[in-house]
Amino acid sequence: MAAVFAQKRQKSFPKFGNQMSVLFVALPIALLLGGAAVIACVRCISGGQYDDLETPSVRMLIDDRPLDETADTDETPIKS
Question: Which of 41, 47, 54, 75 has a Cα-to-Cα distance from 31 of 20 to 30 A?
Fold first, then answer.
C-alpha cells in the first residue's frame, strides 16, 4: 500500500524528487537542539537557579539592618 502511494506521489510531483531526504538533515538537528535544551535545563535546576522564587522579588523590601525599636527613626541618622 505504501509503495503504491509513493509511486503515485512520484508521478504527481516529478520535479521535487524524493521528499524524505530532508529528514536526514532536519531530524538530527532537531534531536541535537532538543538534547541541548534538556542538558541546559538540568544544569540550571541542579545549579539551584530555581530553588527560591520568592526572595528575589521581595529582597528590596527587606531592611538591611534592624532598626532600634526604642529610638525615634525620624530624628536618628543612619550610621554607616
Answer: 47
